[in-house]
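Our preliminary data section would be incomplete without showing what the modeling component actually yields. Below, a chain of 151 amino acids is followed by its predicted structure, encoded as tokens that our downstream tools consume directly.
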Amino acid sequence: MSGLKDAPPEIEGHGLLAGKVVVVFFGFTQCPDVCPTSMAELAQGFHGALAMAIHGLSTLPFWLALGGVVTAYVFYMVKPEIPAAFARIFSPLVRVLENKYYMDWINEKLLAPAARSAAFQVPGLAAVSGSSAFETPLASTCSSRSFSSET
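Predicted structure:
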């Protein structure tokens, strides 16, 4: 049984579509005013798979991606001394980037100690200290209850 509405039986098993380009169209399919224009725009822009591939080879994103692949190959496979020289020249920038802008250090040395000391100043936040986390009257009441289905 075919899932296509009003599809002829020969489409069953996709035998009719074998070796052909299949386009999936996400749009209106049962409307008199939008469908004809949408499908006409699609047909106007599609001139076959070969034309689409040739057009793809002439676009800027393709050439930028290819340039990135070629640059990476040359830098890391053919001339590995080039990235080593860049790392030497830009060593302060490399250090900052490798340390993730020192955000971990800022968090560990400045923010976390400040948060810990502030937690001891506020009543009821003793769980932050790590001594007895979740030891509140509500938590002890919940943990001592039996959650069985028996009544």
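Confidence is low (pLDDT under 50) at residues 139-151. The two ends are 51 Å apart (CA to CA). Preliminary results of this kind motivate Aim 1 of the renewal.
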